[in-house]
Amino acid sequence: MNPLPSLPTDNLYKFCAISGLVIVIFVGYTTWQKWSDLRQRGEAIEAEAEAMKLSVGWWQTLERERSEALKTLAKSDPTMPTIVLNGDPIPRDQFWNYLDNREKEIETGRLKTVDSVARFGKIVSLQQEMIWMLWVAGGSIAFGLLLMGYGFWNWRAIQLKQDTLLEMQLKK
Fold it and tell me: Among 85, 108, 112, 86, which residue's Cα sits nearest to residue 96?
């Protein structure tokens, strides 16, 4: 005969049930918070990419202007003091400064295009991070639900037995 009473296993099952519930709530909240953060970062990157699309058109316009300016220079009379470009006369000595400024603006546009490719890589990285986060969160929530179900199921089974035992003791 064992002089020690049986261990209170119902407390263990209560702990499992409540721990599972806490896991589900905590993981659900943190997943929602992280998802919102990633979505906001993605929207910011997409907004920058949209602004980039507008500047790419501007950059292409600059390249056309530069090309037209060089064609105009090639066709112009070298003895004339000005070169007429798009209806505007430009002094011949300032023409190269004009072209240098256009070159700098075009180079800036090219760098922005390279930057937009990097932004696309960031969007892909964010999508992969979201997928990984959802898998981890799904696994954690599944574990929490299993733990919660196990705890509540066994706690209920033991509680029913304890209730019948108490009823029998009261009838005596």
Answer: 85
Q: Which residues pair with 89 in a beta bridge?
A: 84
CB 94 within 8 A of CB 82: no
Q: What is the pLDDT of residues 118-137, one digit of tens each?
A: 777 777 788 888 899 889 99
Whether 34 contacts 136, CB under 8 Å = no
Which of these, 116, 107, 122, lies nearest to 50 by C-alpha position?
Answer: 116
Q: Tell me the angle at which helices 92-171 and 9-75 cross, rounded to the nearest 10 degrees.
A: 170
Q: Regarding the domain delimited by 28-155, which CATH topology (the fold level of the hierarchy) does it fall under?
A: Helix Hairpins (1.10.287)
Greater confidence (78 vs 38) lies with 38
In order, the DSSP letters of 39-84 are HHHHHHHHHHHHHHHHHHHHHHHHHHHHHHHHHHHHHS-TT-SEEE
| Model confidence pLDDT, tens digit, residues 68-115 | 766 666 566 666 666 666 667 777 677 777 777 777 777 777 777 767
End-to-end, the C-alpha distance of the chain in Å comes to 24
